[in-house]
Amino acid sequence: MSLMNYLLLSAVLFSVGATTVLVRRNAIIAFMGIEMMLNATNLALVTFARINGNLHGQVLAFFVMVVAAAEVVVGLAIIVAIYRTRRSASVDDVNLLKDVRDPA
Amino acid sequence: MTGIFDTPQVDWALVAPVLVVLGAAVVGVLLEAFLPVVARRTAQVALSVAATVGALVAIGWSWHRLSGVDAPTDLAGLRPGGRALYALTTESGGSLGSLVVDGLTLVSQALVVVVALLSVVVMADRTATREDPFAPMVSAVPGSQYERLAASRGLAQTEVYPLVLFATGGMMVFSATADLLTMFVALEVLSLPLYLLSGMARRRRLQSQEASLKYFLLGSFASALFIFGAALVYGVTGSLTFDEIAAATVTPNGLDKLLVVGVLLLMVGLFFKVGAVPFHLWTPDVYQGAPTPVTGFMAAGTKVAAFVALVRVVYVMLPGMGWDLSVLVWTVAIVTMVVGSVAVLVQGDIKRLLAYSSVAHAGFVLTAVAAGWGTGETAVVGPWAVLVYLLAYALATVGAFTVVALVRERSESGGLTGEATSLGQWAGLGRTNPVIGACFMVFLLSFAGIPLTAGFVGKFAVFSAAVSGGAWPLALIGVLASAVAAFAYFKVVVLMYFPARDERPADADEVGAGGSVASQTGAVGTATLARPKTAAVVATRGCATGVIGLCALLTLLLGVLPGGVLTAISNILQ
Question: Which of A55, B25, B211, B569 lies most in the core, judged by the most C-beta atoms within 10 Å?
Answer without folding.
Answer: B211
